[in-house]
């Protein structure tokens, strides 16, 4: 399998503000690769460098085996790019948008209809509706169709699921999985941790620095402290009591429970329960739990920032 | 990318999309097509500078056949209405004060005799100066009418007569203001449509993020720019034709020169304005800023400094200098010369050259500044 | 959460009128033929953290606009902070706080200037603004950047400040419209801890979010589908009722079952 993207020591600053520091990563052909990070982590800058809209200050970059500075034209005609804002013409209808982007890429909707049929069929009932009148989920699908209409080899998606509801997000990821089967390499950035597990490999970005690049399973392997899911009646008190525990490494709310990490390898559930009972909490449930992507990301973030315990 | 035909069709698609934007957005469609007509009618009917039913008092101290003839000539035009014939000039002031009259004319004693003998005689024209603009026009009109009569009745007055005859009147003898406004209006509307609309339509794509996608497509920057320019070029041209047509049909504004030359010069000015619009859009990423620059930096000078409303010659020197870099100033001179004087390219080549150079510089600057990447 | 939280019945909770900060009964908004909000009834008790979920276009935004006095309902009744949405819109506005991801603070002003400005808007006296401003800056740890323009600050700090400013005038209820979009998980949790803390002091929190794990942080959650409330209870109870393992699963099941009027909004 070939390499779709390779970056080595890539740096980018805007004025005095560093946006990317020493980024090195490789994306294989046919891979679904996730860039995970919060707003301001550098995801958009990285994607813009990949789609040749920005030039890195330093470092080596190759996209589809081409140089993004010298051979940007060749790259541009072979990638599909979806910017952070769904860049559609809101005053044009669904169909007009798609046809326009097809002509811009010197192709027709019919020529590559196979590729987008799946997605476009959901938009078909609203063919004549103006794009501005679509819901977030629909806009997102249309923007994806527009990015795919010329059958690119590499798809670069900048936060396609931000601000979109959970149903649309799930549908969108199902579409990406199907596109991957068609052999398209996909790089997608997202602030949602739970989406990381849907990628083949992920890169964690925080303040312009890569915290980790690995498969989702590999990433969670980086979390080594014993982790427990703890429940009790008063969650906010529970959080404070767990943080107050002398062996606490961290305690964060996770859905209906609190994830508590202990400093000691030998920590046991019974011990934690005893502590909480002593502090007067009720309905306590403590069970060991496998760390997830989000646990790992937060732990890495704190390491990266050199922060102590919360 | 695949073949030449492909490139042409993607360009056509682009232009088509641009037209869709224009016609979908009611406001821009209204600006494009409503504006020229409304402005023309507004300037043509409402904001008239010309004069009607001027109440006039004539104090004839000479009472000869010539003064009577001039008087009846003045009154016969319909512009002046006789509102009194005071025996002495002293009676004139109260008439002004009471608002009975707008103008008074005094013929000096022995007017006819002196004119015969000395080829020189004096008429005093007094106007109510509280509205200087109107007074100036009335004075000019009166002077013109008197001179006109004298010329016709073989009394060519020699040399300076203490009255300044504006050369303008040679070509616009009835001082019809609409004649003057039409060229100015053409400049203003072309500037608005071409510069404002293109700069807004490009910055809108930057704001919505679609420009990013266009840049990443296989379109070349030149194609993007041309795709933006062509629709407005066509629409501006339609506007020129309709303004000239309305001006001629509704207001009877003549075009003494060649229509072809007028259209060619207008196309040139449209190019200047379009290149200004593109230049503005390379300077900013926001629609709001583009609009501010276009309105404040282009439209206002076009109205105020081009000679549209205030004659360039009567501006203070610094403003006269500034007016040289305003494209509308040159266009205005060209259009006025063609329409009112019937001038040809042999007379107007200098003004034309100025516009050509301006366009060239702006296009070169825009192409240099247009970025194929983001900052 | 505190024991005093009102767990009112789902529909027409009238018996707890004194404790309820929001009471809605058959609240409806019709745009032309489209019933954006279709007779929703629910109540929110004092000090409750109430999650208001729904797919894009399910009617959430319209409902919030009616509850905050920005939009008059077509029919039905609702009171917020003790004031009627028809007659007391102005009183409602004075007694609620509002923060959204899209609009909250002015980016070109410093934290202190923002506090002063919004304090003035909320009708605080100058002395109060000064005291609260100083206290806010201290508790948020913004002392070192009190005079830096907001746009230079990390998003997480801005959001905390926005929340603090939204509750500066001590409203009885605060509406949070997707307050944590785009923030890293650490900051998101710290933000929620602020919410908990405020709720413990008796503030009612009405929050919308796209993060389903955040739905589980709420005392009670309602899920809107096609303008109606399709489910309303504590997260645990809802998952038990519908036999699902997570809020996300429940949300997707309910939203997909809807006829999908998800193309407005």
Automatic annotation (TrEMBL), chain A:
<dbReference type="Pfam" id="PF00005">
    <property type="entry name" value="ABC_tran"/>
</dbReference>
<protein>
    <submittedName>
        <fullName>ATPase</fullName>
    </submittedName>
</protein>
<dbReference type="InterPro" id="IPR003593">
    <property type="entry name" value="AAA+_ATPase"/>
</dbReference>
<keyword id="KW-0067">ATP-binding</keyword>
<dbReference type="GO" id="GO:0005524">
    <property type="term" value="F:ATP binding"/>
</dbReference>
<dbReference type="InterPro" id="IPR003439">
    <property type="entry name" value="ABC_transporter-like_ATP-bd"/>
</dbReference>
<dbReference type="InterPro" id="IPR017871">
    <property type="entry name" value="ABC_transporter-like_CS"/>
</dbReference>
<dbReference type="InterPro" id="IPR027417">
    <property type="entry name" value="P-loop_NTPase"/>
</dbReference>
<dbReference type="GO" id="GO:0016887">
    <property type="term" value="F:ATP hydrolysis activity"/>
</dbReference>
<keyword id="KW-0547">Nucleotide-binding</keyword>
<feature type="domain" description="ABC transporter">
    <location>
        <begin position="5"/>
        <end position="232"/>
    </location>
</feature>
UniProtKB/TrEMBL annotation, chain B:
<feature type="transmembrane region" description="Helical">
    <location>
        <begin position="229"/>
        <end position="253"/>
    </location>
</feature>
<feature type="transmembrane region" description="Helical">
    <location>
        <begin position="178"/>
        <end position="202"/>
    </location>
</feature>
<feature type="transmembrane region" description="Helical">
    <location>
        <begin position="347"/>
        <end position="367"/>
    </location>
</feature>
<dbReference type="InterPro" id="IPR051449">
    <property type="entry name" value="ABC-2_transporter_component"/>
</dbReference>
<keyword id="KW-0472">Membrane</keyword>
<comment type="similarity">
    <text>Belongs to the ABC-2 integral membrane protein family.</text>
</comment>
<feature type="transmembrane region" description="Helical">
    <location>
        <begin position="259"/>
        <end position="282"/>
    </location>
</feature>
<feature type="domain" description="ABC transmembrane type-2">
    <location>
        <begin position="123"/>
        <end position="373"/>
    </location>
</feature>
<protein>
    <recommendedName>
        <fullName>Transport permease protein</fullName>
    </recommendedName>
</protein>
<feature type="transmembrane region" description="Helical">
    <location>
        <begin position="289"/>
        <end position="310"/>
    </location>
</feature>
<keyword id="KW-0813">Transport</keyword>
<dbReference type="InterPro" id="IPR047817">
    <property type="entry name" value="ABC2_TM_bact-type"/>
</dbReference>
<keyword id="KW-0812">Transmembrane</keyword>
<feature type="transmembrane region" description="Helical">
    <location>
        <begin position="29"/>
        <end position="47"/>
    </location>
</feature>
<keyword id="KW-1133">Transmembrane helix</keyword>
TrEMBL record, chain C:
<dbReference type="Pfam" id="PF00005">
    <property type="entry name" value="ABC_tran"/>
</dbReference>
<keyword id="KW-0067">ATP-binding</keyword>
<keyword id="KW-0547">Nucleotide-binding</keyword>
<dbReference type="InterPro" id="IPR003439">
    <property type="entry name" value="ABC_transporter-like_ATP-bd"/>
</dbReference>
<feature type="domain" description="ABC transporter">
    <location>
        <begin position="22"/>
        <end position="251"/>
    </location>
</feature>
<dbReference type="InterPro" id="IPR003593">
    <property type="entry name" value="AAA+_ATPase"/>
</dbReference>
<dbReference type="GO" id="GO:0016887">
    <property type="term" value="F:ATP hydrolysis activity"/>
</dbReference>
<protein>
    <recommendedName>
        <fullName>ABC transporter domain-containing protein</fullName>
    </recommendedName>
</protein>
<dbReference type="InterPro" id="IPR027417">
    <property type="entry name" value="P-loop_NTPase"/>
</dbReference>
<dbReference type="GO" id="GO:0005524">
    <property type="term" value="F:ATP binding"/>
</dbReference>
